Input
Amino acid sequence: MAEDLNLSKTLSKEGKYEELIPQLKALITGEEDVIANLANVSAGLKEAFGFLWVGFYLVKNNELVLGPFQGPVACTRIRKGKGVCGVSWDKAETVIVPDVEKFNGHITCSSLSKSEIVIPILKNKEVIAVLDVDSSELNTFDEIDNKYLSSLLNEIIF
Output
């Protein structure tokens, strides 16, 4: 497969995911390097949706450590239970935040971030990483994002 994505600009959110996810899965199929796959997934999601920030934090030595991402510079390390990413890791569940200003304990890596979704990636029932996606607009994320992003994350093999 060529390393180009074929994306329609006129589709609904769900339509964009349905067009993008198979292309990303094809792109990472057969590639064993996790960092390369995470980098391409970050780039593909940012390109398709124009999100402010898309990236991964990897669990290392009981911290979330910044991994591949697309967007402005980011926080490098996050403790368990701190901020949206740390809460998602601690609870091992998706956290959707319509307005980050109203999330108790939100860590401001970028003042441009207005809403956020964080989805944990599990291996053997343990969180090993999280996908963090930020938007510069309020109320960007919902169960449609959770459904399709979770489906994509199931294809990433650590």
Strands lie at 53-60, 63-70, 77-78, 95-97, 115-123, 126-135. The chain has a mean pLDDT of 92. Helices lie at 13-28, 34-49, 83-91, 143-153.
